[in-house]
Amino acid sequence: MINLSKLVKEFEEMFPRELAEEWDNVGLLVGDIRKKINKVMVCLDITKEAVDFAVKENVDLIISHHPFIFKGQKKILQDTIIGSKIIDIIKNDIAVYSAHTNVDAAKGGLNEYILHKMKLEGEILDGDLIALRRFNLKEKTTIEEIITKIKVSLNIENVRLSRANDNRLVKKIAVTTGAGDSFIPLIRGKVDLFITGDLKHHISLDMGEENLHLLDIDHYGSEKMVVDLFEEKIRQIDESLEILKFDSKEVFEYL
């Protein structure tokens, strides 16, 4: 058992809140910072199913990657999706903490974690770009070989490739989890391949003409392993805590 205040303090030493984007809503979203914590559920998204699971399992704390409260709520009503989740969480004395873009950016955070999971041979470069991680492969490699390795290592069935017009071999890679097309200006002309999710048509078309491979591994595909990262970090803080992992599952079906 651990005080929530102590857990939050040590968690934020790993993932400093100041690394979060200005628009983000990270930290303790629901609950009493003085609460005693014994059982923690980690998840990507706080869906209704996730809340029901937490209630059923008598969870003390939910730690999610995506905050389920972003904008100000003028009403909290049982007959709305967000309202019913908030009410059920409060009624069952469950605290909610979210760590989002600060986890992406932190040293040892999600961007580095996914690179290690990809099992590519090479080295992660010291970050001059907080929101991204850059990686140099040991040897130049075809885009097809990289895709095969990523699909196997991350257990992803489908990816989308916007191929560079010159179909260049890949040596320099940049990665950011989630929706990353807004970061493309930071890496133009600096890498051969950018791996992220939620890529848009027109920017992908333009980057192909600038000879940049874009690999879209899907928003969920790039972030689903955050539950494993959270579990590892929480166990470093207190091994006695019971940790449950809830799989929010992919939003889209591929038919």
Task: Describe the structure in your own words.
A divalent metal cation binds at residues 65-66, 104, 219, 223. One of its GO terms (molecular function) is metal ion binding. One of its GO terms (cellular component) is cytoplasm. This is GTP cyclohydrolase 1 type 2 homolog. Pfam families: DUF34_NIF3. With 255 residues, the chain is of the alpha/beta class. The chain has two domains: 2-99, NIF3 (NGG1p interacting factor 3)-like (Udp-n-acetylmuramoylalanyl-d-glutamate--2,6- Diaminopimelate Ligase, Chain: A, domain 1, 3-Layer(aba) Sandwich); 107-221, NIF3 (NGG1p interacting factor 3)-like (Udp-n-acetylmuramoylalanyl-d-glutamate--2,6- Diaminopimelate Ligase, Chain: A, domain 1, 3-Layer(aba) Sandwich), CATH 3.40.1390.30. The chain has helices spanning 4-14, 48-56, 81-91, 101-105, 110-118, 143-153, 184-187, 201-209, 219-223, 226-237; strands spanning 2-3, 27-30, 36-37, 39-43, 61-64, 95-98, 122-124, 133-141, 160-162, 170-179, 193-197, 213-216, 242-246. A six-stranded mixed beta sheet has the order 7-8-10-11-12-9. Helix 7 (184-187) links the parallel strand 10 (170-179) and strand 11 (193-197). Helix 2 packs parallel to helix 3 (81-91). The N and C termini lie far apart (45 Å).
The gist of it:
The protein is α/β, with parallel strands linked by helices.
Note the topology.
Blueprint: E1 2-3, H1 4-14, E2 27-30, E3 36-37, E4 39-43, H2 48-56, E5 61-64, H3 81-91, E6 95-98, H4 101-105, H5 110-118, E7 122-124, E8 133-141, H6 143-153, E9 160-162, E10 170-179, H7 184-187, E11 193-197, H8 201-209, E12 213-216, H9 219-223, H10 226-237, E13 242-246
Parallel strand pairs: 4-5, 4-13, 5-6, 10-11, 11-12
Antiparallel strand pairs: 1-3, 2-6, 7-8, 8-10, 9-12
Helix pairs in contact: 2-3
